[in-house]
Structures are given as structure tokens and as C-alpha cells.
Amino acid sequence: MIMAAGRGERMRPLTDTTPKPLLRVHGQTLIERHVERLVQAGIERIVINLAWLGRQIRDYLGDGARFGADIIYSEEAPRALDSGGGVFRALPHLSPGPFAVVNGDIYTDFPFQTLAIEAPYDSHLVLVPNPSYFKGDFGLQHGKALVTAAELFTFGSIAVYRSAFFADAEDGVFPIMPLWRRSMAAGLCSAQLYAGMWEDVGTPERLAALNAAPVRR
Prior knowledge:
The chain is built from five helices and 13 strands.
């Protein structure tokens, strides 16, 4: 699943008329890069959630055939359902097996083909070293994510879930953080640290910096 429903407030005014996943780095949209890399990794069935200017994303990607993908859309209009509600709404398209979720506004060379989740975990998070503008989200110890730790890392907006992770959730707007905390408290959230290329394209300045840097594929 690619998360693509958000308003992109920090990206305004660029996102007033263009959804953030359709912003371009070296001429290619962020979401197109994700679709191509997922297909290269053998992940061909892709669910994309839509809300803000979602029609533009649907019109741009279509059914995914030109990428060798089968793209399914999960509608959330008139408003995005947040990080938890968005995935929960899409569960009928994602269950019953484990599924990967990646935010549509990151730029990375993470090898999606390596994503995996082991029993008995219900979630697996990809963490990255903290960028200069952030102090970190979670700790990492013996392959498990921790709510608190002496050293924190940033959630890299890439994860794997089992449907059991969303047990007791209901359709609607809700964040995913409380579910992460529940999973970590139960020792059911595994994690890994990825030190490769990763950027959160969260502001016009970061987008401009990416476009000014050498092309990375």
C-alpha cells in the first residue's frame, strides 16, 4: 500500500493544486518512483489511498498496467482518515496475508524485496538515522521496536503489518501511533535500521534540495 491521501500542509503552496505524491524529483513523480521500485521488487498488486486531489493521482497512474502493476484505489474523501484509519479502510484489499505500507512522500533506495515479517510479530518497522530536523521516534533493541530508549531512530515510513495489528479498530479517522504503542508493549513489533539513502520530502526546501542534488536511482 502507498499512502497518498494527505493534504501536505507543510508543502503549501505547491500542494494547493498538486497532491504531494505527484511532486517531482528530477522529472519523476514521487509516487511513480515508488510504483516502479515496488514492481521491480516483485510487488505488483498495489493499493493507493486517495483523498486530497485524489483524482489527479488516479488519472496519472490509471490501473497501473503501464508499470506492470495492478493498482487498486481506496477512497477516503471528503477527508483523509489519518495514518491508522487509511490503512484500516484499505484492509479488504490487503488481507489476509502480511502487507507492506510505504508513505508516498519519501524518497529512498530502500530494497523493498527484502521486506519481511517473522512470527509472532504483528508489525515490522523500518527505522532510519535521525535527520537533522528530527529527534527520533522509537528505540531498537534485539530486533524489536521500543517506545522509549536511550537512543531513538526515525520511523522511515516503511512498514509491514498483519491484519491482527488492527484488531478492535473501527472505520474512521485515527492515527496509527496508539496501535504501534500497543504492539510494542506486547513485544509484537519488530524493526530494522536502514542506513541507506532516505529523505522525507516534507517541505518545499527539501524538495528543492533533492532536485539540486545528483540524480539517484
